[in-house]
Amino acid sequence: MVADLTAADFLQASQQSPEKPSSNIEAAALQVESLGLQLDGKVILHGVSFSLPTSGVTSVIGPSGAGKSSLLRCLNGLLTQWSGTISVAGASTRQWHGGWDQLRRHVGLIAQKPVVFNASIRANVCFGIHGWRQRRRADELVEKSLQQAALWDEVKDRLDAPAVTLSVGQQQRLCIARAVAIKPGILLLDEPTASLDPRSKQLIEQSMQQLAKETPLLCVTHDLEQAQRLEGSTIFMCDGRVIEQGESKQLFTQPQCIETREFLRWSVCDCN
């Protein structure tokens, strides 16, 4: 449950200017090497290594319990008790300028269940943006972000309406608009279309493909057809390990590992 947000909350957020990586960082790419994670004595991730291109969609597939969602939370600093190396834009996330909070501004995360603030659609998009109360800047920012999230045409005449009045699919796209408004270097999505109707799913996928032209996206999905539609590359995980990574078309038609072939055929695997 998200508490009601007051004008003071928004004013405080609007005065926070996001810190960016130092200028010698050239690109918003991600490199993971030998990532390990244990929670409550249980090993969740085993020596995970992979790289994320500087653009395009990379889908992460695998059975439930494979460690996919935990992986995303390590990448943006929601989980910090991991071992190994995570580098974003050439910099270790453990030494990120401004700490974990600033890392999470650069590496955005869209959860499976949309979370909207008890405020207007406009304020939800602009939350956390320095100077958003300047009307002209806010109008430009809101329109562009909502267009990127494929939501503008549906809400442009009611931007001051409460965000909670939107449908679940619209709320999810509003969350995407809020995330892209701060111009993240990388966007992580954890089953962003789970339980949504086909039309909402289609709109979000279209939005993702447009965003991926400039921003690398890493998307966890249980929908294998979705991973194929999004194209780009695909990572197959099982039992906390990366089993195979490759171009999506090749991985789905000519998987190199027997575990991948079994999962694609039966939706189950035995990687122990």
Task: Describe this entry's structure for a reader.
Strand 7, helix 8 and strand 8 (217-220) form a beta-alpha-beta unit. With 272 residues, the protein is an alpha/beta fold. It has a single domain (34-266), classed as 3-Layer(aba) Sandwich (Rossmann fold), CATH 3.40.50.300. The chain is built from eleven helices and ten strands. 36% of the residues lie in helices and 22% in strands. The strands form two sheets. It has a six-stranded mixed β-sheet with strand order 6-7-8-3-9-10, sandwiched between helices. Strands 2-1-4-5 form a four-stranded antiparallel β-sheet. The longest helix has 14 residues, at 135-148. The radius of gyration is 19 Å and the shape is globular.
Short description:
The protein is α/β, with parallel strands linked by helices. The protein is 36% helix and 22% strand. Helix 8 links the parallel strand 7 and strand 8.
Ends apart, CA distance between termini: 38 Å
Order of helices and strands: HEEEHEEHEHHHHEHEHEEHH
Beta-strand residue fraction: 15-25%
Average pLDDT for all residues: 87
Helix content: 25-40%
CATH topology call: Rossmann fold
Strands ordered across the widest β-sheet: 6-7-8-3-9-10
Total strands: 10
* The CATH homologous superfamily: P-loop containing nucleotide triphosphate hydrolases
Task: Name a few traits of the molecule.
272 residues; alpha/beta; Rossmann fold; six-stranded mixed sheet; four-stranded antiparallel sheet; 11 helices; globular; disordered N terminus
Give me the secondary-structure topology.
Blueprint: H1 7-14, E1 30-39, E2 42-52, E3 57-61, H2 68-75, E4 82-88, E5 91-92, H3 99-106, E6 107-110, H4 121-126, H5 135-148, H6 152-155, H7 168-181, E7 186-190, H8 198-211, E8 217-220, H9 224-230, E9 233-238, E10 241-247, H10 248-253, H11 258-266
Helix pairs in contact: 5-7, 7-8
